[in-house]
Amino acid sequence: MLSSAPPHPIHDPEHEHSNGCCADPAVLKSRVRGSYLGLAIGDALGATVEFMTPYEIRHQYHVHQEILGGGWLRLKKGQVTDDTTMALALGEAILATGEINASAIAAAFDAWMRAKPVDIGHTVRSGLMHYRRTGKTTAPEDEMSAGNGACMRCLPIAITTLGANEKAVRQASKIQAHITHNNPLSDAGTETVILMIQALFKGQTLNQQLHHYAHPLAAKYPQFYFRKRPCQNPSGFIGHTLRVVFDALFNTDSLEDCLVEAVNRGGDADTTGAIAGMLAGACYGETAIPQRWLKALDAKIQGACTAQAEQLLSLRNAASEVNWE
Question: In which domain, by residue range, is 273 found?
Answer without folding.
Answer: 23-318
